[in-house]
Specification:
With 128 residues, the protein is mostly beta strands. It has one helix at 70-73; strands at residues 6-13, 16-23, 89-102, 113-126.
């Protein structure tokens, strides 16, 4: 059994590659998700946690942080390129997004809030 909470998927499209990372349960392989309580469930607060993720192998620290560290996953990603590319400058685009939705646990309300962070960086690296 793997205790690593991240699952990585790679796909190649021509001269580009997609690396998808998502949290998953290391016991059954399911993606870590949570669902919003239904309007009927708001009447019974004990039911609010029914569909929430609660595995003993959850990928979160006791302080609520997400476990994602180089000591578990390594410090680098490597690609093989043709020898003719040595000495040339290549442009790498790194982009991604992180979404987080908040639903109050102790209040009877329909309020929820989703925040999304998108990032994009262009790196120009000379191959040596």
């Amino acid at each position: 059994m793997s205790l690593k909470p991240w699952k990585f998927e790679e796909s190649v499209h021509g001269y580009s590659a997609n690396l998808n990372w998502f949290l998953h349960d290391s016991v059954d392989g399911r993606e870590v998700v949570s669902s919003k309580p239904s309007k009927i469930a708001l009447i019974n607060p004990k039911a609010w946690f029914k569909d929430r993720y609660s595995s003993a192998y959850r990928p979160f620290t006791r302080q609520g942080g997400v476990v994602f560290a180089g000591d578990e996953y390594g410090e680098s990603v490597r690609w093989k390129v043709d020898r003719s590319a040595v000495g040339k400058t290549m442009e790498w685009e790194i982009k991604g997004s992180i979404s987080l939705t908040y639903w109050p646990n102790k209040y009877r309300t329909f309020y929820n809030e989703t925040r999304r962070l998108e990032f994009r960086e262009i790196l120009r690296l000379t191959l040596g």
